[in-house]
Write a structure and sequence with these properties.
Blueprint lengths: L2 H22 L8 H12 L16 H46 L1
């Protein structure tokens, strides 16, 4: 199998792993740290008013969790790609240096 197909299969697997809990866990509590912090603040200071309002109001915590998971997976993919790119460049440079050394020894 080619690397391109493997990469797409891995990406698809990550997306499926992120979406599956949302489909199979009914009535689960998917609250994030922001929501928990807001609840704690309003318990301590009921008169507190937030400084900013969200630009987009998401329909549920599950959608928010899904978007966060997709964002994390995308970031991990970019980091993995960059590490692989630099490793490949390093290996190619080593091969070129070896070929250059071998060529200069012969002549």
């Amino acid at each position: 199998m080619s690397n391109k197909i493997n990469n797409w299969l891995l990406f698809s697997g990550v997306v499926i792993l992120a979406v599956a809990p949302l489909l199979f866990v009914r009535g689960g509590e998917f609250s994030g740290a922001d929501e928990q912090a807001e609840q704690a603040i309003t318990e301590l200071q009921p008169q507190y008013k937030p400084w900013f309002q969200p630009i987009v109001e998401l329909p549920s915590g599950e959608v928010e969790s899904l978007l966060f998971a997709v964002q994390a997976a995308g970031g991990a993919g970019v980091i993995g790609y960059v590490i692989g790119l630099y490793k490949g460049r390093s290996e190619n440079k080593q091969k070129r240096d070896e070929n250059t050394n071998r060529h200069t020894r012969i002549h």
